[in-house]
């Protein structure tokens, strides 16, 4: 008796045991795929976890349907990494596998029809079409819906099938099929019997009257001697100007033979074209420090100001690692926003780079997967967003996490709710590889780790080529409003600078960001937003209850009628967005070309690159945009950056709002003046005395870090406390309240005041489901593992309560 334990791509924690025969047991290895029956009629693709001979207790095993792979498509390191992910982020291995594998690897059921087992005799009751299908099914045991369509030669056959189903004549069978279709390219060669010179001459003589066919043959020889490579049918047709019919005639005669070769879809044209740049003194120093830091640290943080030349240092390190034959993973927050960087790296490394992104077609992803698995040179360097972490690296030498502070490294939904940066550290360890994080504005956690010796730390303080950091000026728009020096949302200072810059034929970037879902209440007279007394966050306006609430501690108060600070009744919940700015610009600068970059204008596939290109070609004078503008763009001609309103960033209800504001403002400012002329940045704000803005204006990361760290300490937030968020969702408000209260009380018994909530999030209902959150704060000296165990036990008991069976529970570890 032989068995396998398989992991199925479903949220259930356990593996599933199936029986296999002796040969199968000998053949199967961990990481191979098998099609297995599940439940009454479902078929799933399972991943073999282990092969053994221990029959499970208490149930009869089913046998597997068939084996789908010749070789494992998942490595043992991947399996270990995924087990870590499932354990750390409290989800099932099946959920990790579903996120990790390209969809085409997880076979899909597809509709197949067959005759029902019941004997059917009243053939005369069938319509003509029904009868044709019925007859066809007597000759073939089953039919694909597409076959049925072809047989009847009509498109809409669903109704006919439905009728046959209703009459119990046929039944639907679910089956699985391989979805991945590699792209095949057709090649042409001479049939073997003609390859001797003598035979060939005879052949050409015989073809003297078939002029076109002869022509094709002559060109085939010419191409053959010239390239010594396989000749594709397209190349041959083009050269000989022959028609497909001529080619076919030669194949039919047995003179030529066609054959197919699998093509890789993810191709880059062109070789490496640029020399790797010689590093300058500061870069050499930083590079040396990274190298020596790697001798004692597995992870190093490179803190280098914008445009200090970090990328060139990465390039050097990559070059070194691939020379030893190892693989490199270069992780970026969002691939769509980094076309510039990809092009730059391709110039250095040519075809050794593959890009991997969850938005790619399944086929493209399958190909990169296979290339990485077989260590093909063309996938030696992978550039990818967070999902590239799941690729089957065999021999990883280096991981680079660029812009490590970016929030998009975190996946919020669905499970696994993982942070790709943190998970990359574990992956690097499994490969005994090194990890380099880079940022001009590191996350507080990473910088803290570096400062406390967990990571190495290397700093680059100056921009490359002695380009100065931009000159940052804060503009007090409260004052400007009072003095009537505002035109719409533009201060006279900003307008003045813009006119200057545009007159010189230089470009302007304007930044306006409205993050978050619910509007922040802001007094339009004094700019104050009400704050939570218990937390350092703004209260969020809840229209539903006409309340102001704190997202983190549950504090709430009735919405006030007038501003608590200045008493005026000018409370406003509507901010202004990029669109309004764009409209204002058209009247203010009718002769300038204005464009907008935000989620609305970059929906199309190439919309984003088109905007970048237009900016590079100076077809745009003023670009208005959201935080998309902050993402590592490198432009030559932008000498002015304007921030329309810094306050809505600072007032965002999140314990990281200040840190994020600093990062965003620094990054946006970093777009200005990347060439010799010093760039200018104007930040408009109601609150020019805000510490964060001061720190931004003098480029003082260190001061920001110290102050924010104090606040985190005082308010018990990361990096001093870990947090786990438990989210409850249900259609019934009362049920979700009751369920979360039950869960919360069970946790409070153990963790006391470190349990916050349950409380509804600012948007208390999404998609008709009411939501309640519990936040578990975990002090440094409390075991994370034991805490999770405890939560899991509570969760298990919770799941056995019938009343709560409809309530969905999501657990988000390190939810920030
Ligand atoms: P960062 O990644 O820190 O923002 P980059 O690596 O993009 O900085 O460098 C900023 C600019 O300086 C780029 O245009 C880059 O080509 C140029 N640069 C950086 N290092 C060198 C070098 N060693 N030689 C020539 N140009 C360099
Ligand atoms: Zn006010
Ligand atoms: Zn609070």
UniProtKB/TrEMBL annotation:
- Protein name as catalogued: Replication restart protein PriA
What EC number(s) is this enzyme filed under?
5.6.2.4
Binding-site residues for Zn(2+) 2, renumbered to this chain: 532, 535, 550, 553
Per the record, the domain of life is: Bacteria
Q: Which CDD domains match?
A: DEXHc_priA (cd17929), SF2_C_priA (cd18804)
Residue intervals of the Helicase ATP-binding domain: 291-460
Quaternary state and partners of this protein?
A: Component of the replication restart primosome.
Q: Which InterPro entries match?
A: DEAD/DEAH_box_helicase_dom, Helicase_ATP-bd, Helicase_C-like, P-loop_NTPase, PriA, PriA_3primeBD, PriA_3primeBD_sf, PriA_C
All residue ranges annotated as the Helicase C-terminal domain in the record: 558-712
Q: What does this protein do?
A: Initiates the restart of stalled replication forks, which reloads the replicative helicase on sites other than the origin of replication. Recognizes and binds to abandoned replication forks and remodels them to uncover a helicase loading site. Promotes assembly of the primosome at these replication forks.
Q: Name one Pfam family in it.
A: PriA_3primeBD
């Amino acid at each position: 008796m032989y068995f396998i334990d398989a992991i199925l791509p479903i949220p259930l924690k356990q593996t599933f045991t199936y029986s296999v025969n002796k040969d199968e047991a000998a053949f199967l290895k961990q990481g191979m795929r098998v099609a297995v029956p599940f439940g009454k009629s479902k078929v799933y693709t399972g991943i073999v976890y282990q092969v053994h001979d221990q029959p499970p207790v208490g149930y009869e095993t089913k046998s597997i349907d068939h084996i789908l792979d010749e070789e494992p498509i998942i490595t043992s390191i991947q399996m270990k990494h995924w087990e870590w992910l499932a354990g750390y982020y409290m989800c099932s291995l099946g959920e990790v596998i579903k996120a990790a594998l390209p969809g085409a690897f997880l076979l899909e059921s597809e509709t197949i029809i067959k005759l029902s087992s019941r004997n059917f005799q009243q053939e005369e009751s069938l319509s003509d079409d029904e009868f044709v299908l019925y007859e066809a099914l007597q000759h073939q045991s089953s039919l694909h819906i597409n076959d049925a369509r072809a047989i009847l030669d009509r498109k809409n056959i669903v109704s006919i099938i439905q009728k046959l189903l209703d009459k119990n004549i046929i039944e639907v069978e679910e089956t699985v099929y391989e979805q991945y279709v590699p792209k095949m390219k057709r090649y042409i060669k001479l049939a073997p019997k003609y390859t001797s010179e003598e035979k060939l001459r005879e052949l050409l003589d015989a073809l003297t009257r078939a002029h076109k066919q002869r022509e094709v043959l002559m060109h085939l020889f010419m191409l053959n001697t010239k390239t010594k490579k396989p000749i594709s049918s397209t190349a041959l047709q083009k050269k000989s100007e022959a028609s497909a019919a001529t080619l076919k005639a030669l194949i039919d005669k047995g003179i030529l033979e066609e054959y197919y070769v699998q093509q890789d879809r993810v191709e880059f044209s062109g070789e490496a074209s640029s020399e790797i740049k010689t590093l300058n003194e500061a870069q050499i120093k930083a590079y040396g420090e990274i190298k020596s830091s790697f001798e004692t640290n597995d992870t190093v943080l490179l803190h280098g100001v914008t445009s200090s030349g970090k990328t060139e240092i990465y390039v050097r390190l990559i070059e070194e690692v691939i020379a030893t034959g190892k693989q490199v993973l270069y992780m970026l927050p969002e691939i769509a926003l980094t076309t510039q960087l990809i092009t730059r790296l391709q110039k250095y490394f040519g075809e050794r780079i593959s890009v991997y992104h969850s938005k790619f077609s399944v086929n493209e992803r399958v190909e990169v997967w296979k290339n990485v698995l077989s260590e093909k040179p063309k996938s030696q360097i992978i550039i990818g967003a967070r999902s590239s972490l799941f690729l089957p690296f065999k021999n990883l030498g280096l991981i680079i996490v660029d812009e490590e502070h970016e929030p998009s490294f975190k996946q919020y939904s669905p499970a696994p709710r993982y942070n790709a940066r943190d998970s990359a550290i574990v992956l690097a360890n499994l490969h005994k590889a090194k990890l380099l994080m880079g940022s001009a504005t590191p996350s507080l956690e990473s910088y803290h780790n570096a400062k406390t010796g967990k990571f190495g730390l290397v700093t680059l303080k100056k921009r490359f080529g002695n380009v100065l950091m931009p000159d940052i000026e804060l503009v007090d728009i409260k004052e400007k409003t009072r003095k009537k020096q505002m035109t719409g949302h533009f201060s006279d200072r900003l307008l003045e600078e813009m006119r200057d810059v545009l007159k010189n034929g230089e470009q302007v970037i304007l930044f306006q960001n409205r993050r978050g879902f619910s509007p922040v209440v802001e007094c339009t007279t004094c700019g104050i937003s009400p704050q939570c007394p218990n937390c350092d966050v703004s209260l969020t306006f809840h229209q539903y209850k006409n309340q102001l609430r704190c997202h983190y501690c549950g504090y709430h108060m009735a919405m006030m009628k007038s501003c608590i600070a200045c008493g005026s009744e000018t409370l406003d919940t509507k901010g202004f967005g990029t669109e309004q700015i764009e409209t204002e610009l058209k009247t203010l600068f009718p002769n300038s070309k204005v464009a907008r970059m935000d989620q609305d204008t970059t929906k199309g596939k190439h919309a984003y690159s088109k905007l970048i290109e237009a900016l590079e070609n100076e077809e745009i004078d003023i670009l208005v945009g959201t935080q998309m503008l902050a993402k590592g763009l490198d432009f030559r001609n932008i000498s002015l950056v304007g921030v329309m309103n810094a306050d809505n960033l600072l007032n965002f209800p999140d314990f990281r709002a200040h840190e994020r504001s600093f990062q965003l403002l620094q990054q946006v400012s970093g777009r200005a003046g990347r060439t010799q002329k010093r760039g200018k940045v104007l930040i408009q704000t109601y609150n020019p005395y805000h510490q964060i803005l001061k720190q931004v204006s003098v480029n003082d990361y260190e001061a920001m870090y110290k102050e924010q760290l104090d606040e985190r300490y005082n308010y018990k937030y990361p990096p001093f406390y870990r947090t786990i968020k438990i989210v409850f969702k249900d259609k019934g408000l009362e049920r979700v309240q009751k369920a979360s209260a039950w869960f919360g009380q069970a946790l409070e018994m153990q963790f006391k005041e470190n349990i916050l909530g349950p409380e509804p999030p600012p948007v208390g209902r999404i998609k008709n489901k009411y939501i309640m959150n519990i936040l578990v704060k975990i002090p440094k000296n409390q075991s994370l593992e034991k805490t999770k165990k405890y939560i899991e036990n509570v969760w298990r008991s919770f799941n056995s309560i019938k009343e709560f069976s409809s309530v969905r529970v999501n657990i988000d570890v390190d939810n920030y």
